[in-house]
Design a protein that fits this description.
Elements: H1 16-27, H2 30-42, H3 46-74, H4 78-89, H5 97-128, H6 137-148, H7 151-170, H8 172-200, H9 205-213, H10 221-234, H11 242-247, H12 256-284, H13 293-306, H14 310-344, H15 348-369, H16 384-411, H17 414-421, H18 425-455
Helix pairs in contact: 1-8, 1-12, 1-14, 2-12, 3-4, 3-10, 3-12, 3-16, 3-17, 3-18, 4-5, 5-7, 5-14, 5-15, 5-16, 6-13, 7-8, 7-14, 7-15, 8-12, 8-14, 9-12, 10-18, 12-13, 13-14, 14-15, 16-18
């Protein structure tokens, strides 16, 4: 029996597969759709994907299993989960900081994630109106830049996205999170399949497949290996408490190792499929693959504007991106909300609204970073958004994941781990080796290298 009881006070997933969809929804976000395809193609294609999959199994899956087993063992928010496990293990209370740091990181990420997700929602309407039909590269860039220069427009879409996120989370696990996942994730997969079918007809599918899957080991190098390690960690939403919070709602009869493996593979399949879609469209139009927001909001709209049925499929694409953003956002808000409900016995809907308002206010810093505060640099050349992005993705998340692996591997009683994982002794020992040594060393390597590169400018 779990330390926190058989069920969570917040509710439970109705089945193992609902947890798979929920965790996959948390993992599948904006980064899958534009970041993974580019870094794969730019770092040796198939060579990168092979190293990435290796890192998923050596780093991502072991730490994800650690998060899920902690959540299911205690069935509380990440902060209270760490509190209970520290007491049971007779460990230093300093370990509780892992929970606090994860919850804070998720909260900060949501503040700027909501702004960027708002861009995708806006582009659903902009694309549907035929704005990009026959547009030039300069015209597509002008549309995007004009949008970023309008604080009111950014705030409008940020607000709509936050309202939707709060509404879903406020309704609880079964009536909110699970209902949204049950609707959005199948739709996301259907839309992705539709877009993949469309990509095959563009004439650029073969070139896209070659770009992503060709084995060019000479293009990997140290940078490529570190990029694969970093992507394997970040793509699974690790280190921010989201997976631990979702793990608290997992049924007792679900296999943690098997379920986590399915989630990791599903996340990878979506990332690869998104890459094939994006680059088929880009190459079919003779465009150069770009990186970051420019690829999604300038290059792709330009491509859609030149293609038959481009308006229809461009609209479908941005609906897909919006769905992916929502499923990630609700997981970012859940850890902080669960803690406050437990700590103060508060009404879930009131806490959700309060957190939503605070997140929205913090998000204004990101909104203004693209216009009226664009020239305000807080640290070095970093705007408010750049600084928040750097602190969360390069410091808080990897540090949280590193400490989480060490805590589970070295501090928690072996019996607790064995009871939760239900693995043969040999496999348990292999997992312990990975979570004690390999995963922390991998995360630490990426962490130190990222900080070194930032320090060197």
């Amino acid at each position: 029996m779990a330390l926190g009881g058989e069920t969570s006070r917040h509710g439970m997933w109705s089945s193992r597969w609902m947890f798979v969809l929920a965790a996959a929804g948390s993992a599948v976000g904006l980064g899958n759709i534009w970041r993974f395809p580019f870094i794969a193609g730019d770092n040796g294609g198939g060579a990168f994907i092979l190293v990435y999959l290796l890192c998923i199994f050596l780093i991502g899956i072991p730490i994800m299993m650690a998060e899920v087993l902690m959540g299911r063992e205690v069935r509380k928010s990440p902060i209270n989960t760490l509190r209970k496990l520290v007491t049971v293990s007779k460990a230093s209370p300093a370990w509780i900081l892992i929970g606090w740091m994860g919850v804070a990181a998720g909260f900060f990420i949501l503040s700027f994630y909501a702004v960027i997700a708002g861009w995708a929602m806006d582009y659903v309407l902009v694309t549907a109106q035929g704005t990009f039909v026959g547009v030039t590269g300069e015209g597509a860039a002008a549309v995007f830049n004009s949008f970023l220069e309008s604080p009111l427009q950014l705030m409008l879409w940020q607000t709509l996205f936050m309202v939707l996120t709060v509404w879903i989370v406020a309704r609880g696990v079964s009536g909110g999170l699970e209902l949204a996942i049950r609707v959005l994730m199948p739709l996301l997969f259907i839309l992705l399949i539709v877009m993949l079918g469309y990509a095959v007809t563009t004439g650029g599918f073969g070139q896209a497949a070659e770009f992503m899957f060709r084995f060019e080991w000479e293009r990997m190098g140290v940078e490529g290996v570190l990029a694969a390690m970093g992507q394997a960690f970040f793509t699974l939403s690790l280190g921010m408490g989201a997976i631990m919070a979702y793990g608290a709602y997992v049924p007792n009869n679900a296999s943690v190792p098997g379920t986590v493996t399915i989630i990791a593979l599903l996340d990878t399949v979506v990332a690869i499929a998104a890459g094939l879609v994006i680059f088929s469209i880009v190459f079919a139009n003779g465009l150069e693959p770009g990186q970051g927001p420019g690829l999604m909001f300038i290059t792709l709209p330009l491509a859609f504007g030149q293609m038959p049925l481009g308006t229809l499929f461009g609209t479908v694409f941005f609906v897909l991106v919006s769905f992916a953003a929502v499923t990630s956002a609700i997981s970012l808000l859940e850890p902080a909300l669960a803690f406050l409900v437990e700590e103060y016995n508060a009404v879930r809907s009131r806490v959700a609204i309060s957190l939503g308002v605070i997140t929205w206010i913090l998000g204004l810093g990101t909104v203004f970073s693209f216009n009226i505060w664009a020239d305000v640099h807080l640290v070095g050349e970093r705007t408010f958004f750049d600084l928040l992005d750097f602190l969360t993705n390069n410091i808080m998340l990897p540090l949280g994941g590193l400490l989480m692996g060490l805590f589970v591997g070295w501090v928690l009683p072996r019996k607790l781990l064995a009871d939760q994982l239900e693995m043969p002794s040999l496999w348990l020992n292999i997992w312990l080796f990975l979570v004690r040594f390999v995963a922390p060393l991998g995360v630490l390597t990426v962490f130190v290298y990222t900080l070194y590169r930032a320090a060197m400018g």
